[in-house]
Design goal:
Helix content: 25-40%
Number of strands: 4
Low-confidence stretches: none
Largest sheet: 4 strands, parallel
Oligomer: single chain
Distance between the termini: 12 Å
Radius of gyration: 14 Å
Mean pLDDT: 88
């Protein structure tokens, strides 16, 4: 499992791509997992308040079920560029802590079109 952002896959479709965003771009044809999406009003919050509200969302979910639903090949997508504060990294940390898995950001130099990532 990896995390990344929508524009890295603009107009490309792979079954492992999963939107966890509040709003998904119209061109995106991958899966959606709304249980991990933040609420719209959260987007205007400061980082600390956002973290608290988003943790409350995660606290209502079973991390093992979420991981099984998504699959280990999933690439969780939202809007923010790598390095910016983002809920996808909160999800990654939550899964890592709860399940002992590793959920890295897809490396910038990794070719996302390499077949082995999507097989």
């Amino acid at each position: 499992m990896f995390t990344s952002y929508f524009w890295r896959f603009h107009l490309n479709h792979y079954p492992c791509l999963v939107s966890i965003a509040w709003k998904t771009p119209g061109w995106f044809r991958g899966r959606r997992y709304p249980a991990l999406a933040p609420k719209g009003k959260m987007l205007k919050m400061g980082e600390e308040e956002y973290r608290q509200k988003y943790q409350a969302i995660l606290d209502q979910l079973d991390p093992r079920k979420v991981y099984e639903d998504l699959g280990q090949e999933a690439v969780l997508l939202c809007w923010e560029q790598p390095g910016d504060f983002c809920h996808r990294r909160l999800v990654a940390a939550w899964l890592e802590e709860a399940l002992g898995v590793t959920v890295p950001e897809l490396p910038f130099n990794y070719n996302p079109y390499q077949k082995d990532l999507f097989e």
